Amino acid sequence: MAIRNMKKLEILIHRSLHDETFDLLQDMGVLQITSRQDFKNEDLPEEFHSEDLERNINEVRYCLDFINKYRTEKQPFLESFFPTPIPIKKSEFLEKVFNHNQIYKKCQSIEEQLNTIRASMNRLNAQLEFLNRIESLPIALEDIGSTRYVKSYLLEINETQYPLLQDRLEKIGKELSLQKFSGKERKCFAFLIIYQDLIEPVENILAEESISILSLPQAFEGTPKEAIQSVKKKIQNFEKQRANVEKEAVSLLKHESELKITLDYYASELERRNSEAHIFKTHDVCLITGWAIEETIPAIEERMKSIGKEWVISQRDPDPGEDVPIALENGPWSRNFDVLTNLYGLPNYTEIDPTPFVAIFFFAYFGICLGDAVYGLIVALIGFLAPNFIQMPDSSKRFFRMLAWGGIASMIFGALTGSWMGDTFDYLPSFLGFITTLKNKLMIINPINNPLPMIIVSIAIGIIQVLVGLLIAFFKEWKRKNYLDAIYDKLSWFFFILSIVIYIVAMAMIPSIKTFGLWFVIATALFLVGTQGRSKKNIILRIFSGLYSLYGITSYLGDVLSYSRLFALGLTTTIIAMLGRTIAGLFGSSPYFGWIIWIVIFVGFTVFNILMSGLGAFVHSARLNYVEFFTKFYENGGKPFQPLQYKTKYVKFTEE
Amino acid sequence: MFIDGVAFALMGSALAIGLAGIGSALGVGIAGEAGAGVMTEDPSKFGQVLLLQALPGTQGIYGLLSGFWVLLKLGLFGGTPVDVTTAQGLQILFACLPIAIVGLISGISQGKTSAASIGLIAKRPEETGKAIILPAMVETYAVLALLATILLLNSIQL
Known about the structure:
By secondary structure, chain A is of the alpha+beta class. In chain A, about 60% of the residues lie in helices and about 10% in strands.
């Protein structure tokens, strides 16, 4: 129900106990080690360099990424969200010596080979593209180029341009040969052979007519068709080579779990080394300072006894203004909702833990927003069962349980508003009629025929949460001994809003207390006018700013009206379910296979509705708590408590 | 007169479904483009990206719901068609306008916010929770418009 009490621990040990102490602390995972700024190490012996460890970590990560890239068998869908942990005994883990170097080198060499192959294949494909362009030419490609006396060109020109070119070339002289070959898309090829003497005038003409000379990307042998064959063969060879290399990459998969364990080992080692760098050392003693949860301190002392006698532990309360890490402690039920507090940001050490309040309100909001008895049952079953069948971290387990409890709330509110997969239960076969009767008996509000009561309920819940928020703010200020602020700014608003609510209720239902309600409103309003301007010296200004402060009621009005979404979202679920039922009924009435179509459409709509309404219910329930409730009192900004422990991402310790 | 009234009412239904649907389509599209960009770098973010992309999709659902409500009210969906005067038809048309207009515009805005939130989780995946709340702030107004449409429709006596 609260933020756990933290103590600052100072553990003074003889230098000889250094390693054993850190073994013990990391094993227990109870101390967040901090550095003491006011001490300077008198000798700076083995300064720790984290580069080696970090390099190892990066290399192992690279190997894992590499292996993952060439994984052939598909991983199950759930595996990507909740990877199955690798079970290992703690003692085995700590003695882990696995040389990843060989695998790392192998990965690198495979990647290099693949890169070379890829580059060669790119080159060959470019050649192939070129050759395909001139595929129809019957000439041997090695003839293109220059010899001692002649030079040959391969030209690509427009059909219409060819006669002109022929004309101009003939005028230069007889020592050339021009041959035309048909090409594609109104282009043709020309094979031109000239004596070396004519190079200059011929190339001038070609430039003037802007005719492109095709140059071969590489020396080829034979006609283009033959060249294509040989290039294709080369590509096939490379493909074969690539398949072999990739097979090698796939075979590395067997090292995956080894590598994962190694990565966890190095990460834990790095964590520990970094913590060790924080502590203060002299020639003979070490001083370890850090934060620990108060209740765990006796256990630390107990464990320390087992390693020797040369140590002293002292503890003190945190100083005001000190940056104390935050650990939350909640009851078995409200603990499931602490993900909401974490999402918004942890409280300061002096703040109260809002989780129990958020738990109750979120439970109710999720229930109203999902608002369907059958859907609630489905969500509750998934939420309660999933953590038992899928291995996942504790925080995910709590998240699922939170949804499950939301599902239970949804069953309650769904029954009260008569939504059982929308109105599906009105169309049950006649022998199940008693269920329909039961459903109708449980229903106390029908938001479809008469939305007003449900809106009033939503807004009433909103008023309650806003009032609770103000009360918490009042107690917080009171505890900090800001008595005047507590009464003038928090309690006064609490009673002002309460009086307005009483007055409205009195007008609608209980006329006998109407006058009392009115005077209550006037009294609290006057109190606000009198106190809200208290910072102003001038009496007139004071009254005016007091009056102006009453305008603040609009922000409370906005907050309260915002809760009408509870009604709207609950109704959305019901109507979409009705829509699904109706459409399924329309198509389902077709002959013979109608029932199959009915099932497909109905199940599809149900799944879709649960997903979308569930998402909406979560998001909007969280929002109401964050925006309308937290703004009344809550200050976040706490940093989570991160004790020195084993940093394990992949492994899970089993019993020795 | 019978025909006119139903025609107006159907126009309301069509506008609610159509315009809100366009808003969601554009919004989901904007968010999807951003999401695809993020996933080229890190395909493992698919789950979170999909969640954020789905958020602007609700306007379309609200529109569909309002349009369906109109059809139910008219008795066109499994029931006996109700007589609707021109005035009643126009009332239904106007009642549909809040979700039609707000759905269209808030869908686009929410899509932009979602896209920005997808950018946020690309750099800081641990802040997915906060990234989801920001687009939900836009959705508030779509919910309010839906509320208005439902209340207005409910107040029309046929």
